[in-house]
Amino acid sequence: MKRISVNVNGVERWVVADPKRSLADVLREQMMLTGCKVCCADGQCGSCTVLIDGKPIRACVTPMEKLAAGAKIVTIEGIGTPENLHPLQIAWMAHGSAQCGVCSPGFIMSAKALLDKTLTPTREEVRAWFHRNRNLCRCTGYKPLIDSVMDAAAIMRGDKTIYDVMPKAKEDGSILGTEYIRPSAVAKVTGTWDFGADVALKMPAGTLRLALVQAEVSHALIKNIDTAEAEKMVGVERIITWKDVGGKNAITGLITFPTNKGDGWDRPILCKEKIFQFGDAIAIVAADTEEHARAAAKKVKVEVEVLPAYMSGFAALAPDAMEIHPGVPNAYYEQGVVKGADTKPLMTSAAAMVDITTYCSRQPHLHLEPDCGEAFVDDDGVLTILSKSIGVHLHHAMICPGLGIPPEKLRLIQNPTGGTFGYKFSPTMEALLGVAALVTKKPVSLVYDQYQNITYTGKRSPANINIRLACDKNGKLTAMETDWWLDHGPYSEFGDLVTLRQAQFTGAGYHLENIRGKGRTVATNHAWGSAFRAYGSPQSFLASEIAIDMLAEKMGEDPFEFRYKNLYNETSTTPTGQKPEVLVLPKLFDMIRPKYQEAKKRCAEFNKAHSDKKRGVGVSLGIYGCGLDGPDSSEARVEMTPSGFIVHSGWEDHGQGADLSAQTMAHEVLRAAGVKPEEIGLVMADTFGPNSGPAGGSRSNVFSGNAIRVAAEMMLNAMKKPGGGYRTYKEMVAENIPLSYDGKWVAAACTDCSPETAQGNPFPIYMYEVFLPEVEVDLETGETKVVKFTTSVDVGTIINKATVDGQIYGGLAQGIGLALTEDFEDLELHTNLKDCGIPYPKDVPDDIEILYLETPRDLGPFGAAGVGEAPLTAPHPAILNAINNACGVRVFRVPALPEVIRMGLEAKAGKSATKSELQHN
Ligand code: MCN
Ligand code: FES
Ligand code: FES
Fold first, then answer.
1. Catalytic-role residue among 29, 171, 869, 899
2. According to the model, what pLDDT value does residue 918 have?
3. How crowded is the C-beta side of 15, counted as CA atoms within 13 Å?
4. What is 202-311+382-455's CATH number?
5. Could you tell me if the CB of 141 is within 6 A of ligand 3?
6. What per-residue string of b and e applies to 299-322 under the rule 16 or more CB within 10 Å gives b?
7. Which of 111, 315, 801, 899 is most exposed by smallest CB count within 10 Å?
8. How far apart are CA 445 and CA 198, in angstroms?
9. For residue 254, what pLDDT is reported?
10. 68-86 per-position pLDDT tens digit
11. Relative to the CA of 661, which ligand 1 atom is closest?
12. Does residue 133 have its Cβ closer than 6 Å to ligand 2?
């Protein structure tokens, strides 16, 4: 320990600290300057960036002892306050740049250092600066961040005013379709938005800190758990094992289909007899500090008998593979698709047919904020769990029987959340927190480090799809056959649905009336499969959007026009036999066609001038449904108070902007009574409030948006005076009129899909997008980058323009990662953000163009569909198609790593790789 003098935000202070501790830890834990966020603790993400003597420094890798005497430290708290914001903070809000907001303080500090040097940077200089300073963002695709810096610089130069930059309501007061800022924006850009790790620091004295004892192998029998030595370690209060869990000690997967061969109780809260995957929780240590808890966790001895680990669908499907869950076959769910006529004769008589196998990877979510949460038993004896849950009511049902408490004694509330992209559709640590709080009878907190966050949360389920696609002599699609499996890891939750998604989306978008296929969900010992943005569809479109490209090639036709003539028409149905709710794909293709032609010309000119690098353009389409399968519903409440209105909604916010959307939906109705947006407060994502369903499946804008609209309409009706005008709060009270209204919206016309045929009407509304990337391939190294991305999109009426732009930019950036770099396969290598292949600023093009078509949907709130998942449905096959267009190499799996492309180039040049090597390497 040492008494160290520091100058923080202009104030000279003394702090007693361990000189080896990081500046980030001292700022956060000792000075409570929690605007300095720690996401990786490894210098990779820049979320902890502060200024030291004007330079951007990553505080997580700066030990206190490295601080020079008299060094001046500036944190986000030192550059602006909610009442007096820095231009960068204003511009960040104005461009919707703080989506989840966990990266915002770090980016703003980094940008400040740049603008302190120059007020006239170019966009490229800003991008290079962020890239060099390792500033990562997973939500925004970076473009809005660059826009923000450019605007902040303009304000600081005096070329623009704050008024110019800040979005405004429309003249009639409506904020629908504007770029109105989020209610959470000020807190996010000033660093006062408390994420779960900040909440943990601010828990009361006596809160126990938890650490997990986790499996270090992927498949094993547990012979003994010895806690004796660990119990004696300093600070330890209690070591908790399966014996301490009061209920079934399992998380129920709420399996959807009775044809599922398991019972859905396959995921233990704490492992008893068996380890199913690396990282599985075996015991929890509760101690006075996190350091003590982690040290003791290392001393728990787990004796195991290692079993063969099945790390892929290929391995788990092998005839001699043992059952991972004894009594349940590894292929535990089968899904068929049967539409139209028998496809066999159509395949035989086809003018052309493509038969390929594609493999979509175990894409990691790479949300920056590591998983975290707290729990306590409140004064009424209710176990209250705070976490990143994006399905508080869903998770309540999934964990309650495992904990063994009555449902009314369990409450889940979502903490401000630093991105999930779907991994939090599964409960992660909720049950662990719950068990610990129940056993110790004290408040507890658990904060994963980035290693745990990556290795012990769910991932996208890899899919291996064989597709055969046929057309007649006119190039019209006649039939499709598919055969697929999904590697869903060891736990069955949502495994049947993701398998069904292949039936719903493979071949979607085209007039394709004859389909036969069969798929299966396979248990493996790799990471458990969880929801991931666009859930299930990236696997499907990888297959069908490469196949159709190849079919066009076989027919000697342009891939854009070949698609165009096969798009859904007035007589078409989706692969599940549903009539599309709007016919927008031909218009989206018409809109983007001139861009396609320009791109082809641009690429040809580049290729003429370069022999070492080649450029190409690719096309694909993507579609996704809004909703959970079948008759889904959402509830909301609007309450009138003396000072305004409160929307109560379960719409969880990952970072996508649930707060602003809930406010906008209510305001668009209530503004008739002269209500201002700022008079509408929010109480969100709490199981003691209305059940709005999970924020997944891009369902919330439609379902929760409609439920809020309905509740607001009921309120407005109640406020209406017989002679015109609206009642005030006082008048409502005086007339004894209820002050609270519950709205509900049900997609009543939707039906489930059958496991045998997949036929049904699963979604009320779909989103549609066309992808047009341009890539550059280095012919020597195989390195590929996306240099420009154009997309045309129809997500119905736009509720907030900055939100929708941000969703699309961010989704495309994740699509670039999926296509080229991201993976979670190697448990030794893929253990941090960088090695999992997360795109840094310069890995995503600044040149992204979005063309909007706004076709109002009859069932959408104010005509809106959803948007979150659309941009990640099919950007990656378009990129792979563009690679082929650039250099003639077909890649059938993602990520298309340079070595795979290089192998393809060598094969083309007459060297060794075969088609099957390219499909499976
Ligand atoms: N929206 C709009 N106008 C439309 C459609 C949508 O303004 N026509 C807005 C909505 O009001 C909402 C956002 O766009 O703020 C996304 O709406 P929707 O598609 O309904 O999605 P959900 O609110 O249900 O959010 C979930 C969705 C999914 S499934 C994932 S995964 C996802 C995503 O949104 N994860 C995200 N976007 C994310 N964005 C961030 N920053 N972080 C995540 O983890
Ligand atoms: Fe410091 Fe990531 S760089 S937390
Ligand atoms: Fe950048 Fe979420 S806003 S990580």
1. 869
2. 47
3. 23
4. 3.90.1170.50
5. no
6. bbebebeebebbbbbbbbbeeebe
7. 899
8. 11
9. 83
10. 988 999 999 999 999 999 9
11. 11
12. no
Mutate to test the pocket of ligand 1, among 425, 708, 807, 854 (most ligand atoms within 8 A of CB): 807
User: Ligand 2: which atom is nearest the Cα of residue 24?
Assistant: 1
| Closest residue CA from atom 33 of ligand 1 | 868
**CA 399 – ligand 3 centroid, Å:** 29
- 633-746: which CATH topology? Aldehyde Oxidoreductase; domain 4 (3.30.365)
Ligand nearest to the CA of 867: 1
DSSP for 855-911? ---TTSGGGB---TTGGGTSHHHHHHHHHHHHHS----BSS--HHHHHHHHHHHTT-
Q: Identify the DSSP state of 510.
A: B
- State the number of CA atoms in the 13 A half-sphere of 167 facing the CB: 24
- Could you tell me the residue ranges of all domains in the chain? 20-193, 202-311+382-455, 581-626+759-921, 633-746
Encoded amino acid at 68, one letter: A
The SS3 call for residue 464 is strand
Helices (H) and strands (E) in the chain, counts: 26, 31
Atom of ligand 3 nearest to the CA of 97: 3
Architecture of the domain made up of 20-193: Orthogonal Bundle (1.10)
User: What pLDDT is stored for residue 921 in this prediction?
Assistant: 41
Contact 586, 567 (CB under 8 A): yes
- Cα gap 127→36, rounded to integer Å: 22
For the chain, residues with pLDDT lower than 70 are 911-921
The verdict on whether 917 is a catalytic residue reads no
State in Å, rounded, how far the first CA of the chain is from the last one.
Answer: 53
613 Cβ contact partners less than 8 Å away, ≥ 6 residues apart: 606, 776, 777, 778, 779
pLDDT at 75: 98
Would you say the CB of residue 40 lies under 6 angstroms from ligand 3?
A: no
Q: How is domain 581-626+759-921 classified at the CATH fold level?
A: Aldehyde Oxidoreductase; domain 4 (3.30.365)
683 CA from centroid of ligand 1 (Å): 18
Q: Is 103 in the pocket of ligand 2 (CB under 6 A)?
A: no
